[in-house]
Each structure stands twice: as C-alpha cells, then as structure tokens.
Amino acid sequence: MNNQKTPVNIHDYYHAHVYFDQETLEFAKDLCIKAGDLFSLKVGRVHQKPIGPHPKWSCQITFSSNNFDQLIPWLEDNRQGLSVLVHGLTGDNLQDHTEYAYWLGSDVELSLAMFQP
C-alpha cells in the first residue's frame, strides 16, 4: 500500500498508533512517553503483539484537534523511521482506519476484517 495522504486536522479526536518491533521497542516506548509528557496526552499500553486491526506491535496516543498541529510535526520529526498511523475518531471504525487514516512513514496494511459487517 502506498496511497499516503498528508494528515489533516478535520476531526475533534484522534489516535496515533506508533508501530515498532523488538529492535525499536525501547525507542518507541520513549517516543510515546515523551509525546504524552510534552503534550499532556493519554498514552496507551505498549503492545508487544498485534492487537485489533494493527498487524504489528504498537502503542496508542490519544489526542484532540487542539493538539494536532503541534503533535503531528513533532512525531514526524522524532519518529526516526517508525511508522505512525494517525486516524480520526468518528465512531465508524472502518472509515476511521481507511478514509480518515494518514501515515507518517511507511504505511502498514491493517487487518480490517473485524470492521466489516
């Protein structure tokens, strides 16, 4: 997949999912903690297994449109090659993970079957 779009601040709330593996685990944990501290954001657990539609290890950062314009460039500048999925939270999980999905770095094919009717 490579139909990347630049993240756009059009929703009230968002998730950023930072993807990593064994070699980048410590860096990813530090990145998420730092983002949470710098921007006063809720950082979820560090999942060392695929969870939900995410086929790689990941950590979720929850943020609002108020944080978007500062957080997204910061993540882009500090992710050091990690892929980050940014998506809106509209209540429609399929649409959020497709139409309202943006990538920092390489995109990753999500497991969307769980969102199919």
TrEMBL record:
Family annotation (SUPFAM superfamilies): DOPA-like (SSF143410)
Tree of life domain: Bacteria
Protein name per the record: Dopa 45-dioxygenase
Short name of one Pfam family: DOPA_dioxygen
InterPro entries: DOPA-like_sf, DOPA_dioxygen
